Write a sequence for this structure.
């Protein structure tokens, strides 16, 4: 499957993109709903090969930012550039090819309840490719194995899965088209500490194995500490600060101090003192 490049012809697979190169650039992004402005003149870059954690208080626009980059929310103003293409100026073919280059895991999994796990994983394949049924079956089972599910999960329906299995099945669907970027919205939400830790380990393993770039909206301190290369903190409609954890911990802001140094900030504080 070909992917689009800066000149409109080809997007290289994730493994061939130089680590640290800029994949997404957001500039002066403003997004509102009715009279409420959620994001205001926000700037953010996403770099190849990194796991970027996006954190902020409730209502600060973390999921809004992700959905706007994905084109699911309409922006009031600003620019979103993906692989060097301004999405407002991209043609239909370019947009389709960009859409094929990323996968998304929504907060509640968003699996189709009437489809089996295998059929859910095949939805993007049916939308964007012309693969045979046999090949789609083989690929779906490969993705199931890749995310650590047993092979018999393929023929189960979402209602038959545990919360952790739903997350993994949803991640398998996000990986269906071998994406370059994976967007994760609260991936460990609702999981017990062991399950959350295992999911974090899976994300790192997939990033290192497949050369993925990961954009992760999360409130999980342990995830921020253990898997994120860089953290972007949203507040007052903008990126308040961004950088590796040790820089974030030294930024003086009341919300950040309460979040990282409060009663539940144990993991971050332990990391800082190592």
């Amino acid at each position: 499957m070909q992917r689009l490049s800066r000149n409109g012809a080809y997007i290289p697979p994730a493994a061939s993109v130089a680590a640290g190169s800029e994949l997404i650039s957001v500039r002066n992004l403003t997004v509102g709903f009715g009279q409420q402005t959620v994001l205001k003149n926000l700037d953010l870059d996403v770099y190849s090969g990194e796991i970027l954690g996006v954190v902020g208080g409730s209502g600060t626009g973390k999921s809004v930012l992700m959905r706007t980059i994905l084109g699911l929310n309409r922006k009031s103003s600003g620019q979103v550039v993906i692989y060097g293409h301004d999405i407002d100026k991209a043609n239909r073919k370019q947009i389709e090819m960009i859409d094929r280059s990323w996968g998304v895991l929504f907060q509640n999994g968003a699996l189709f309840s009437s489809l089996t796990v295998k059929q859910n994983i095949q939805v993007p394949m049916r939308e964007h490719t012309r693969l045979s049924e046999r090949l789609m079956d083989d690929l779906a089972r490969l993705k199931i194995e890749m995310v650590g599910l047993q092979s018999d999960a393929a023929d189960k329906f979402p209602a038959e899965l545990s919360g952790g299995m739903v997350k993994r099945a949803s991640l398998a669907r996000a990986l269906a088209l071998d994406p370059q970027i994976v967007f994760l919205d609260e991936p460990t939400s609702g999981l017990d500490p062991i399950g959350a830790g295992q999911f974090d380990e899976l994300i790192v393993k997939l990033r290192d194995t497949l050369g993925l770039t990961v954009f992760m909206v999360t409130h999980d301190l342990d995830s921020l500490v253990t898997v994120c290369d860089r953290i972007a903190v949203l507040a007052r409609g903008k990126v308040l600060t961004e950088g590796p954890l040790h820089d974030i911990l030294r930024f003086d802001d009341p919300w950040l101090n309460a979040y990282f140094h409060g009663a539940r900030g144990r993991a971050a504080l332990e990391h800082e003192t190592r």
Summary: The longest strand covers residues 22-33. Strands lie at 22-33, 36-47, 51-56, 77-82, 85-86, 102-105, 181-185, 213-217, 230-235, 238-243.
